Amino acid sequence: MKTFENARTFMLEQARPLEAALFAYHFENGGAADVLAELTRYQNEDGGFGRALEPDFRYAGSSVLATSVALQMLGQLGISADEPLVQGAMRYLLDNLDASRPSWYLIPEFPDDVPAAPWWHGYVDGGPDGFLPNPTAEITGYLWGYPAFAPEDVRLRLTEASLVWLEQAEEVDMHTLSCYLRLFQTSSLPLEVKERLAGKLRELLATAVVTDPAAWNDYVFTPLHVVDSPDSPFADMFASVIQANLDHLVHTQADDGSWPPPWSWGDFFADTWVQARREWAGILMLHNLRVLCNFG
To answer: Which residue range(s) make up the domain with 98?
Structure first.
């Protein structure tokens, strides 16, 4: 299959070793230990992750943003709480919780000369007070996935705050919805929490997901961002357009086997963007290949 073979060539020759190890794990019987060894390179002494793990934010120090990316990868592998990478990440998150909101901040303050996407320079996490759903809803899911790391009262307070914010929302952006989808997908989440999430998520996804194929080349929330396999609990909502979205993935693969990101830094740190763009291509390729595989 040309789609897969071209992608494999790009992954082995141009992607980061981390994505190459994940590719081998998912498609070529590679070992989880190889992925963990590569992921270790991005962890700092405080347990958090940084070092451009999220390619648009290249600050070497730890951030909740990068740490959440690491936990997403660890979740793909089904890594237990005994793994030091998990223990460090969860320690960092609990150390950096602002209990007064209660929330986490996506990124810390960082020097102006650190290469990063223009939207991260000058980024402010909300106002002076109030709940921050992105990334707090997602991180709350990790507290349920690894419950030994947080007191029950903290976990329950964050869960209720996440639910109340969502239930009151009339419109939610794609990044925040992704955080809630990751919370919803937490296997150990209590049933009553899932039930409160499900109805509101369906309501919001109905308007947030772009179903017009003509718009899918832009940076938008597509059906396959929500329905990544036929078993998705939201598959029925987008059944009429899933095949078209799968066809779009196949048809938009670049000649070098990659799927370039549909966004850009413009002239901002232009030289670094060349590298970040290539790293994103490997990340997006891994996601797209897994989706295509899930749908056969």
So the answer is: 42-206
